[in-house]
Amino acid sequence: MGDTKNLFNKEAVEKIQDMTGGGTMMMFCCDLDAKPFHATPMSTQKVEDNGVIWFFSSGNSERNKKLKKDSRVQLLITDDGSSNYMSIYGDAIFVHDQEKVKELWSPFVKAWFPEGPSDPNLTLLKFTPKEGFYWDTKHGKLVSMAKMMASVVTGKAMDDSVEGELKL
C-alpha cells in the first residue's frame, strides 16, 4: 500500500493545477443526488492560482439546466500518461463576464461555439473547489505496471504510490 499525504490550501491548489491545467479533459458531474448523476466530458479553460477552474458550456445543455437547480459538482480527472487520478468536489456558478470570455477564448473552442466569444449559446462556468482526493503513482504508467508485474511474480507489494485528501 502506498503512502498517504493530505494536501491543504496552497499545496492542494498546486496539485489541482498540475492535473487540470488548460485543456485537460475530465468528467463534469452534476445533479449529484440523481441515480445516475449527470456526467459529461468537459475541457478546462484555465485554473487560477486559488484553484478556481473555468469552463465554457453550452447554454442550452442539459448540464446547464441541472446546474441552475443545484450548483454542486464533482470533477473526475484521469491523467492517462502518468496513471494519476483526482476527484474534486465544489460548486459551479454562471458568470456573465465578456472580458473573461475573451481572455479564455482559444481557436479550439470555436468547434463548439462557431460565432466566437460572442456566441449567444456560450456560457462561462466558474468552478470553486472545496475538497477532493488524489491518487499519484509517482513514477508513471510504465514503472507502475512493471512494479505490479514484479509484485505478481514475487508475491511482495511494491506500491510506492501516494494518495490523500485535498482541502481548500
Kindly describe this structure.
There is one protein chain. The protein is of the alpha+beta class. It is built from 4 helices and 10 strands, in the order ββαββββαββαβαβ. It has helices spanning 9-20, 62-69, 98-104, 140-154; strands at 3-4, 7-8, 25-30, 38-43, 46-47, 53-58, 72-79, 84-95, 122-136, 162-167. Strands 1, 2, 3, 4, 5, 6, 7, 8, 9 and 10 form a 10-stranded mixed β-sheet that branches. The longest helix has 15 residues, at 140-154. The relative contact order is 0.22. Residues 140-159 have low confidence and may be disordered.
Briefly, what is this?
This is General stress protein FMN-binding split barrel domain-containing protein. This protein has helices at residues 9-20, 62-69, 98-104, 140-154; strands at residues 3-4, 7-8, 25-30, 38-43, 46-47, 53-58, 72-79, 84-95, 122-136, 162-167.
Keywords, please?
General stress protein FMN-binding split barrel domain-containing protein, 168 residues, Pnp Oxidase, Chain A, ten-stranded mixed beta sheet, 39% strand
